[in-house]
Amino acid sequence: MLRIQKVHAHYGPIEALRGVDIEIKEGEIVSLIGSNGAGKSTCLMTISGVLHPSSGNIMVNGTAISAMAPHKIVEMGISQVPEGRRIFPKLTVFENLEMGAFLGRGNFSVMLENVFRLFPILKERSRQYGGTLSGGEQQMLAIGRALMSKPEILLLDEPSLGLAPIMVTKIFRTIQEINKEGVTILLVEQNARAALKLSDRGYVLENGAVTLEGSSEALLSNEKVRHAYLGE
Fold it and tell me: ABC transporter domain: from which residue to which, for each copy (predicted)?
């Protein structure tokens, strides 16, 4: 479904991704773990078209998207929830969700009700400004906004960042539900244990390159992963 083939990406002279190879099959949850600065967010930004690869290919269902503009990639069915949420603080919850649907993919009312079903608090807060929400509610809004584009693939960048444990549990449970409803998910997450327990497979990114890959079960039992990312 999504194939990243030998992708290199640069910020000026700095090489942030070095020959990254990742494959995600339809219906999977795949985790991308690694330390700060490993290139995880850069990988998502490159898939989304915010950063174009300097070499290599990114394919979605056999179509090359490497040179596409971000809005065209959204049209291809890929939506990203960025690190730090990046909602529109001076727009209401409803207006934020409207922005997510700007391309007109699918039925607006149906998608809105689906978001409200997943996150009932957003319906209660629909006329409230996004900037007045709690951190957990803002994360719900960021995910809801991404779902309003009716994605086939959802890219999640650090969805648990800065949240209380009870909210992290709720967010991860909802991610699992979204996946069960047919959305393929690529998850970048500092909480490696939680991410691998949620996902089917995982990749370890170090200094811009994939150094390990495998089933989540295998990575959870891998000695290097346990020592470097699971605190054991």
Answer: 2-232
